[in-house]
Design a protein that fits this description.
By secondary structure, this protein is of the alpha+beta class. The protein folds into 2 domains: 3-216, Cytochrome Bc1 Complex, Chain A, domain 1 (2-Layer Sandwich), CATH 3.30.830; 238-429, Metalloenzyme, LuxS/M16 peptidase-like (Cytochrome Bc1 Complex, Chain A, domain 1, 2-Layer Sandwich), CATH 3.30.830. 44% of the residues lie in helices and 19% in strands. A 7-stranded mixed β-sheet has the order 1-2-3-7-4-6-5, with helices on both faces. A 5-stranded mixed β-sheet has the order 8-12-9-11-10, with helices on both faces. The termini are far apart.
């Protein structure tokens, strides 16, 4: 028996197979593309120190061959020969495999995606080769100052916790991951009750479920695994530097945020838009347009299941670093005094417009459905989210600003030609 919930044509519809696998769909009759996304509820925060990088390495190896498709070309070539795109990504709380193809190639593409998940062979020679590729990828990211400053700020926000590690692990941990470790890890986490399959395109829900049942109905059920909670509370501001002889200083200012589904989630999202998202935001207008301190300055918000982050990034001339940090902190302090109604309404309009424009693309719709179902256990329509955003009041922004943007929880990371952080520490404590 398959449990089905959902609405009419154009709505998000969900069915749950007997083994726990969730299938969410959205019928999009106006498009010729179909996007298939498979969301697995596992990522770097599920890994011990010894397992660090396992989720990411598995993601790579699922593209190397199955029993029916023994080579990487048999996998990617199947999709690309039709003009489609296939890719994957590993994050802290999920691993995603996706493809977008022309509607007429849906069946063979779905078969391929499930084949990768269930029948990848993990040949020793592929593991050896891909291990080196991943280690090279880690080294490449370390070469980029903007990536390095992101890594530093994560370590500061989530000290001694999997969230504070690079999603790809370290050279040492990846070098020690064995085939048996990966197969055991997959047996724990790659099971139907921990997977959401999301499809958007000009196809019917019942037709999609019928094909998924044919391919996955015999997949044995299993219990999903727990993740490591984060309960550290920061009590004083922190500064971390990494000296590099760069032409530009890369800085990141971050504060602990709020988890997904927290009452402050949408107020904090709106606060980020007011402060640093877009070319009309406060940070852009002050730091770039008025003072010319940076080419790029922006803010962003991350929401995990039990915690989150509010982050501001910028790249500046090293001679103007201190002015830039002071100016950014002044703008952060300014929103703690409140946001005018007109500015709040503008931020709401930005969220609504960007969300509605995204939903014209089958890939974005597939991602939207799968992410929500995996993390929240439900798929909310765009109208529901827009209504929640519109219900946020200026008082809500004021509250979250004074709850989150707290001086003793400031973190500042800088990659550039600096050896001492004392002056920056004084700025943070003013």
């Amino acid at each position: 028996m398959i449990d089905k919930t959902g609405g009419s044509r154009g709505d998000f519809v969900k069915s749950t197979l007997d083994n726990g696998l969730r299938v969410v769909t959205c019928e999009m009759p106006h498009t010729r593309s179909v996007s298939i996304s498979v969301f697995v509820g596992v990522g770097s925060r599920y890994e011990s120190d010894e397992q660090a990088g396992t989720s990411h390495l598995i993601e790579h190896l699922l593209f190397k061959g199955t029993e029916r498709r023994p080579s990487p070309g048999d996998i990617t070539g199947t999709i690309e020969a039709t003009g489609g795109v296939i890719n994957a990504g590993t994050e802290q709380e999920m691993t995603t495999y996706w493809c977008t193809v022309v509607e007429s190639h849906f069946l063979e593409s779905l078969d391929l995606m499930i084949d990768m998940l269930r029948c990848s062979v993990f040949r020793p020679e592929d593991i050896k080769r891909e291990r080196m590729v991943v280690i090279d990828e880690l080294g490449m990211l370390d070469d980029y100052p903007n990536s390095k400053v992101d890594a530093l700020i994560d370590e500061m926000l989530w000290p001694k916790h999997p969230l504070g590690r690079d999603v790809g692990g370290t050279k040492e941990s990846v070098s020690a991951i064995t085939r048996d470790m990966m197969l055991e890890f997959m047996a724990l986490h790659y099971n139907p009750s921990n997977i959401v399959l999301s499809v958007a395109g000009n196809l019917t829900h019942d037709g999609i479920v019928r094909e998924v049942t044919r391919l996955c109905g015999d997949w044995p059920a299993a219990e999903p695994q727990e993740w490591t909670r984060f309960d550290h509370v920061q009590s004083e501001p922190q500064v971390r530097l990494e000296y590099r002889r760069t032409e530009q200083a890369h800085l990141s200012i971050a504060l602990p945020g709020v988890p997904v589904n927290h009452p402050g989630q949408y107020p904090l999202d709106l606060l980020s838009i007011v402060l640093g998202e877009g070319m009309s935001s406060r940070l852009f207008m002050e730091v770039r347009e008025r003072l010319g301190l940076a080419y790029d300055v922006h803010s962003g918000v991350t929401h995990f299941q039990d915690c989150g982050a509010f982050v501001i990034d910028a790249g500046v001339d090293p001679k103007r670093l201190y002015d830039a940090v002071r100016t950014i902190l002044d703008q952060v302090d300014g929103v703690r005094d409140g946001v005018p109604e007109e500015e709040l309404e503008k931020a709401k309009g930005l969220i609504e417009g960007r969300l509605l424009l995204r939903m014209e693309d089958s890939r974005a719709v597939s991602s939207w459905m799968g992410t929500q179902e995996l993390i929240l256990g439900n798929t909310f329509g765009t109208d529901q989210i827009i209504e929640r955003v519109k219900s946020v009041r200026a008082d809500d922004l004021l509250k979250v600003a004074n709850d989150v943007l707290v001086g003793q929880r400031l973190n500042l990371a800088v990659v550039g030609p600096f050896r001492s952080g004392r002056r920056l520490e004084r700025i943070l404590t003013l």
